[in-house]
Amino acid sequence: MNSYFVIRGQRPLHGEISVTGNKNAALPMLAACLLTDEPVVLHHVPHIGDVETMLGLLRQLGVEVELLGGGSIALHARQVRTTHLDRALATQIRASILLAGPLLARCGRVSLPPPGGDVIGRRRIDTHLLAFEAMGARVDVDMARHCIDIAAADGLHAQDIFLDEASVTATENALMAAALTPGETILRNAASEPHVQNLCRMLQGMGAQVQGVGTNTLHIVGREHLHGGEFTIGPDLLEVGSFLGLGAVTPGQIRIKNVRPDELRMVLHVFRDRLGVQCWLESHDRGYDLVVGDEQHLRVEMDVGGAVPKIDDGPWPHFPADLLSIALVVATQAEGTVLVHEKMFESRLFFVDKLINMGARIVLCDPHRAVVVGPSPLYGQTMSSPDIRAGMALVIAALAAQGTSIIANVHQIDRGYENLEGKLQALGADIRRTTTPDL
Fold it and tell me: What DSSP designation does 398 have?
């Protein structure tokens, strides 16, 4: 059933907000349960749409899934019933391809349809397939059946592999395959994002040796058998950045609980140092909170000589591509001009037409670049969420806008954010979910 958010903007937001588990860590860590026939328990799993779809895929493969409550899930891949992924489920999420590495390593074969997910431009999977081929697998892409068959009749073999791009999911796929392949595999030009590090630590706990965690060269000494265990998913960096952007453009003070400062260096550089967001870290006995202040005087920090600065994305530790939409909304409320350069996906910036309709002064130069001139008053509009992060950006814009906004296609936002309206209502936001767009 279709659902909508009805949002009345410019309400002061006050209070604390807790961050859920990292979506992009949860999905590969769920897939990793296929690497062992022993029980695996994951804690701090976000209750979001993409996780539900991944659990559906695992059940279809024969994994026993038990929801323990409180964000904990027990998984037992005692037996793998099939190596053919359910097409209806697999085409809903990009992360379905993460099942390929574990199935290939454990069963020697996998058949999967092209993965789904956000429509933000071409998202190549060649890096995954090239890594599997380097380890001895045969890849058959059947365009007529819309299916990819991968088989390793003689098993996978440890190799020294150079990934042709620093793809997060390709790194995770090759990492999981290598963990169950005896010998030393080296992954060069590997992604090193916090969620990749979270998966590395899980595989270490399951018995694989993984060295170079957090760097772009990973050394994996695989095992013929991995064991189970209990593992905790770290906080979602993208949710932290989303709530930071929210606090920047709305009245009131927000405290974001239990963040990891080491993961926020580039995020704080862009929001605080480039866009002028007043925020700071506060320590306590359990870690750190990020506080977004009540008094905001957003202003773009110009480059030397008054040159127009640029906000761009890139592989870790650069600014995350998934937060570029949030930063763009904040830039509409900051005094000055900034160039936003999305380098990775050619359709991610196409949502800016909705912000322009709300009153933002944005020039979309091409699919990858937009010039934002602020500040601009925003006004409520009726619009639709095109993907997870653009949908969250529209929610933030609606909460900053005068009047009422209606956002359709909310299930896209639900794929990446747990109980978003409940968290925002607790802060004082005027947001409600409805199945009809009528006010």
Answer: H
Taking alpha carbons only, the member of 431, 361, 347 closest to residue 389 is 347
262 is catalytic: no
Ramachandran bin of 24, using left for φ above 0, alpha for ψ from -120 to 50, beta for the remaining angles? alpha
Strands (E), 36-137: 39-43, 64-69, 72-76, 109-112
Of 50, 86, 118, 322, which one is the catalytic site residue? 118
Report the number of secondary-structure helices (H) and strands (E) in the chain: 14, 23
Q: Are 104 and 132 in contact (CB under 8 A)?
A: yes
Q: What pLDDT shows up at residue 439?
A: 57
Which residues in the chain show pLDDT less than 50? 117-122
- Determine the pLDDT at residue 117: 45
Query: What pLDDT is attached to residue 125?
Result: 87
Determine the pLDDT at residue 1: 61
Whether 94 and 118 have beta carbons less than 8 Å apart is answered as: yes
pTM beyond cutoff 0.85 = yes
Locate the domains of the chain by residue range: 4-20+235-434, 23-222
Is there a shared CATH topology between the 4-20+235-434 domain and the 23-222 domain? yes
DSSP 325-375: HHHHHHHHTSBEEEEEE--S-TTGGGGHHHHHHHT-EEEEEETTEEEEEE-
pLDDT of residue 438: 66
CB burial readout 378-399, b (16+ within 10 A) else e: bbbbebbbbbbbbbbbbbbbbb
CA 49, 55, 59, 64: dihedral to nearest 10 degrees?
A: -140
Residue carrying structure tokens 């770290």: 234
The pLDDT assigned to 121 comes to 39
CA distance 355 to 329: 8
Domain 23-222 sits in CATH 3.65.10.10 = yes
For the domain made up of 4-20+235-434, the CATH class stated in words is alpha beta
- Predicted confidence at residue 300, as pLDDT, reads 97
Tokens 């920047």, residue? 248
Q: Quick one: tokens of 286?
A: 């359990």
- Classify each residue of 138-158 as buried b or exposed e, where b means 16 or more C-beta atoms within 10 Å of its C-beta: eeeeeeeeebbbbbbeeebeb
